[in-house]
Amino acid sequence: MESIDTKSVQLGRNVERNVSVSSALWFHLICGLGIVIGFWVSHFVCSIDLLSNPDRFLFILWATECPIVILMFAVLRRDLSKCSVKSAYLRAVGRGLLGLPAGALVIALCAVALGAPVGKKYFLATVNWSLLMSLFTVVPTATVFGSSFVDWQRLFANTRPAGSIDYMLCVPAHGAILGSWFGAWPMPLDWERPWQEWPVCVACGGVAGYMMGLCVSLGLIVCSSRRRDHVKEE
Fold first, then answer.
1. Could you tell me what percent of the chain has a pLDDT over 70?
2. What is the per-residue pLDDT across 157-194, written as a single tens digit (0 to 9) for each?
3. Would you say the C-alpha torsion 32, 33, 34, 35 has a positive or negative sign?
4. Quick check: 21 and 221 in contact, CB under 8 A?
C-alpha cells in the first residue's frame, strides 16, 4: 500500500486532516477484507456460523479484524508529542488496545440497560458482540485521537467531521450503531425464529451497518476531495 500522506488545514477551531482518495480506498478495502476473512475462517475452517455458535463466531470475527483496524489507524494517528515515529506509532497501537475493552464495557452496559438479556447463557455472546462493536466504533478514534475530549465530542456528540480522516472514523461507527439498533427490532416479535436470539440480529445489523458506513465514508471523502479541488481552482 502506498504511504499515507496526511495534510492539515486550519478551519476555525478545527483542523482538517485529509488523506488521498486512493489511500482512503485502501483503508476501507482492507478493513472490509478483515470482516470477509473472519466470515471465511468461521465457515470454512471452524465450520460454525452465527446461529449455531454465536459467541465463538463473534470471537473469530473481532479477533481477525482487531489487528487490522488498530495497525491501520495507528498510521493516521495525530502526533502531538515530539517523540520518534516508531514511539508515536506504538503509543497509538497501545491506545487502540486500551480502547477495545473500555469501549466494550460501555457498550455492554448500554445494551443491558436497553434490554439485552443477562445470565450465564448469554455472557460470552454479549462480551464478544461488545468487543466487535467497540472495534467498529471506539477503537479507531481511540487509536487516532486518544482521549482528546474535544475530538470525541466533535465526532460523536456534535457529528462535525473535519476532513477525510474524520469521515473514516465517525461514519462507519455511526453505521454500526444504527445497524445494531435497527437489527434489534425483530427480536421481541413472536415469530420464534432462531435468528431472533440474542445477539444474532444486532450482530448482523452492526456488521451490515459498518460495511455500509465504509462505503458512505468513501463517497463523502470523494465529494470532499472534489470540493477542495474546485475551491483551489477558483
1. 89
2. 888 888 899 999 999 999 999 999 999 988 877 777 88
3. positive
4. yes
Amino acid at 16: E
∠ at Cα 188 (185, 194), nearest 5°? 95
pLDDT of residue 196: 86
Alpha-carbon dihedral sign for residues 115, 120, 122, 124: positive
Q: Tell me, what amino acid is at 34?
A: G
- Amino acid making up residue 220: L
Peptide bond into 172 cis (omega under 30): no
> Phi, psi (5° rounding) for residue 9?
-130, 130
The pLDDT, as a whole number, for residue 128 is 97
Cell, residue 82: 515530539
Indicate the angle between helix axes 164-183 and 120-137, nearest 10 degrees.
150
Residues 216-234, mean pLDDT to the nearest whole number: 79
- Any bridge partners for residue 8, and if so which? 17
